[in-house]
Design brief:
Layout (H helix, E strand, L loop, with lengths): L5 H16 L6 H8 L3 H7 L3 H28 L7 H10 L8 H13 L1 H24 L5 H21 L3 H18 L2 H10 L1
Length: 199
């Protein structure tokens, strides 16, 4: 079996510590100690801590979006409604290592002026998430997909922040109700009447 490279070991430890303990609380010396890689080797791969944080955020975006879209798509196949976004988030909230959104946390820690690159990465992540939700809205036949996505994002972000304070199944249920209202309001009038009569 191929052993992970020094770069992979560094990133593996950095990803875990940055997300669990925070960017500022995690020092280079600790990453070096836990990865078993010499500090000189770390700086060959990542010239600065900010470079390592940037690599972490790139990985986090790809990893989380792949997981989230997969979780949502699996639910949409059986339950084609916007509320499945909340169900997927609930699965994430229940994970032992859940510490909120890495991008919200990064912006809160570093601010807009400390490292503009990290702010740009966070903004790009949120744009990608909003674009995906807009695509889901379009596939559900909702009017004004961009407006639906903007409203749904407020719900999604609020759920994430609340769950970071204290995981509670009620957060997911409240999110489902709000997303259902957003979907209802975005249904063309004729389809809303049909849904009401069918109920």
């Amino acid at each position: 079996m191929t052993q992970p490279s020094a770069r992979e070991r560094i990133l593996d430890v950095a990803r875990r510590l940055f997300y669990r303990d925070g960017l500022r609380a995690t020092g280079i010396d600790r990453i070096v100690a836990e990865s078993g890689v010499a500090k000189m080797s770390l700086y060959r791969h990542f010239p600065s801590k900010n470079d390592l944080i940037g690599a972490f955020l790139d990985w986090r975006h790809e990893h989380w979006m792949t997981w989230f879209t997969g979780a949502v798509e699996a639910r949409l196949a059986h339950t084609p409604e916007l509320a499945v976004l909340a169900d997927a988030l609930g699965e994430w909230f229940a994970q032992d290592d859940f510490r909120g959104c890495a991008f919200i946390n990064a912006v809160a820690e570093t601010g807009a002026g400390d490292e503009p690159r990290h702010l740009a990465q966070a903004f790009a992540h949120k744009q990608a998430l909003e674009a995906y939700i807009a695509d889901v809205a379009a596939r559900l036949g909702l009017a004004g997909r961009e407006a639906v996505a903007q409203e749904a994002m407020l719900c999604v972000e609020g759920m994430i922040v609340r769950a970071q304070f204290r995981p509670d199944p009620a957060i997911v249920q409240a999110g489902r109700r709000l997303l259902a209202r957003i979907e209802h309001d975005a249904r063309p009038a004729r389809r809303r009447r049909e849904t009401t009569h069918a109920a």
